[in-house]
Amino acid sequence: MIRVLVTDDEPLIRAGIRMILTSADDIDVVAEAANGREAVELARAQRVDVVLLDIQMPVMDGLTALAELRRTVPDTRVLILTTFGEQQNVLRALTEGSAGFLLKDSAPAELMGAVRAAAAGDAYLSPGATRHVVDSLASGQTTRRTEQARRRLETLTDRELEVLALLGEGLSNADAGARIHMSEATVKTYVSRILSKLGCENRVQAALLARDAGLGT
């Protein structure tokens, strides 16, 4: 069972997410938190696999809580709950180690898929928000930032760059493998090698680096 902690300051949103997730046979919502401080305390006590974390909350906001969770329970995966109006916060969360993000109005199947992906060690970038965030990031890029990203990518082989470009599109290992006729296990090996070479903590950071460098665009 995937043990989940739902964090949002609105009780109705927490209740809705709980109802959706507990309808799945492999997901169990073991706790709920109304702010970031409660989320950190409960994540430590309940040994959860995935934390769903809102950004705008009282007492302790989601970004502060994310930093605390990464420091105190690094094996716990954190998914950011967001709206279209919080792009810059989302970008910061991704670069600081979250496992991805999804919109609060996502379909039930997408919510469950995101939790499963995070629990499996993959990143999840909501299709409904990825393009919006990427466009926001691209519009604020500078030549210096692009050059820095491209210099970091110089250590990669052509095949690794090809795989990284697919990460930049938000593809899973399985989808990337299908695109370039490679097994999912082989793609996973390439991803691990890429993260190690680039010094990225997870595939989301690598994907953002690929976008910074203009890879695949």
Strand order of the largest sheet: 2-1-3-4-5-6
The average pLDDT is: 86
Approximate helicity band? 55-70%
**H/E element sequence:** EHEHEHEHEHEHHHHHH
> First CA to last CA: what distance?
39 Å
- The shape is globular
Stretches with pLDDT under 50, minimum 5 residues: none
Number of strands: 6
Q: How many alpha or pi helices?
A: 11
Please summarize the sheet with the most strands.
Answer: 6 strands, parallel
Beta content: 5-15%
- Category from helices, strands and their pairing: alpha/beta
> Which radius of gyration do the C-alpha atoms yield?
17 Å
Report on the architecture of this protein.
There is one protein chain. The protein has 217 residues and is an alpha/beta fold. The chain is 57% helix and 14% strand. It is built from eleven helices and six strands. The chain has helices spanning 11-21, 36-46, 62-72, 87-95, 108-119, 127-139, 143-153, 158-168, 173-180, 184-198, 203-213, and strands at 2-7, 27-33, 50-54, 77-82, 100-103, 124-125. It has a six-stranded parallel β-sheet with strand order 2-1-3-4-5-6, sandwiched between helices. Helix 4 (87-95) packs across helix 6. The longest helix has 15 residues, at 184-198. The termini are far apart. The model has no long low-confidence stretch (mean pLDDT 86).
